[in-house]
Specification:
By secondary structure, the chain is of the alpha+beta class. The protein contains nine helices and six strands, in the order βαββααβαααααββα. The strands form two sheets. Strands 2-1-5-6 form a four-stranded mixed beta sheet. A two-stranded antiparallel sheet has the order 3-4. It is globular and about 50 Å long. The relative contact order is 0.21. The mean pLDDT is about 95.
Length: about 210
């Protein structure tokens, strides 16, 4: 018998721990196998909603926002790289020289969820930024990625040229902020159970097995 779990994965495409968390969650689901079916919806969260269009140097941003020294930032990058490698996700953080605004990416993710290919676009966005060092606010990058995952390029272009889904994304962002979500990833299972942070697969597996009683 298969247990169906509803999972809301609150995250940002510029959050490295969100990439780690997603890879961990998928690893846990693979380990559990067909006993659990997860219906995952990616919910929007902007780490830097006021980020300017040109972005900001990553090291300068981390120093300003968190008080990190260049040495501390380098140590964190290495920790993230190693965690990703363990999970099969490649972080080329030397290519991620800038932090960008991600609102348009979230609008496309909202649309992708309606079209049934949100997971594919989410993974493509994470790879584009963290592995390939691309700008997730660049419309040409976004159009290419949507096409690669099978979405209609004309519709994607029209969305980016308008404010389509802007209200829906802001509404969802506000909803999760009101729930007390102020850092990501935040993985909410069946609207009740929260797993916070880029946890290892074992943590997700334990939580999923307990909730599904498998």
């Amino acid at each position: 018998m298969t247990t169906i779990l509803k999972i809301d994965f609150v995250s940002d495409v510029s959050c490295p721990w969100c990439a780690v968390g997603l890879a961990s969650l998928q690893t846990a689901l693979d380990r559990i196998g067909p006993a659990v079916q997860a219906n995952i919806t990616f919910q929007p969260f902007e780490l830097n909603p006021q980020m300017a269009a040109e972005g900001e140097d990553t090291t300068e941003h981390l120093a300003r926002k968190y008080g990190s020294t260049p040495e501390q930032a380098a140590a964190i990058r290495e920790t993230i790289r190693a965690r990703g490698a363990d999970l099969g996700f490649v972080f080329n953080l030397d290519k991620r020289s800038r932090i960008y605004n991600t609102f348009d990416a979230h609008r496309l993710l909202h649309w992708a969820q309606l079209e049934g290919c949100q997971l594919a676009l989410k993974k493509a966005l994470l790879k584009a930024y963290f592995t390939d060092g691309e700008d997730p606010s660049n419309h040409q990058v976004l159009l290419r990625l949507t096409t690669e995952v099978g979405l209609d390029a004309g519709r994607a272009k029209a969305i980016l040229a308008s404010d389509t889904f802007a209200a829906e994304v802001r509404e969802q962002e506000g909803f999760y902020q009101r729930l007390g979500i102020h850092s990501v990833p935040a993985v909410i299972i069946n609207d009740r159970h929260l797993v916070s942070g880029g946890q290892p697969p074992e943590a997700f597996e334990q939580a999923l097995r307990q909730l599904a009683a498998v």
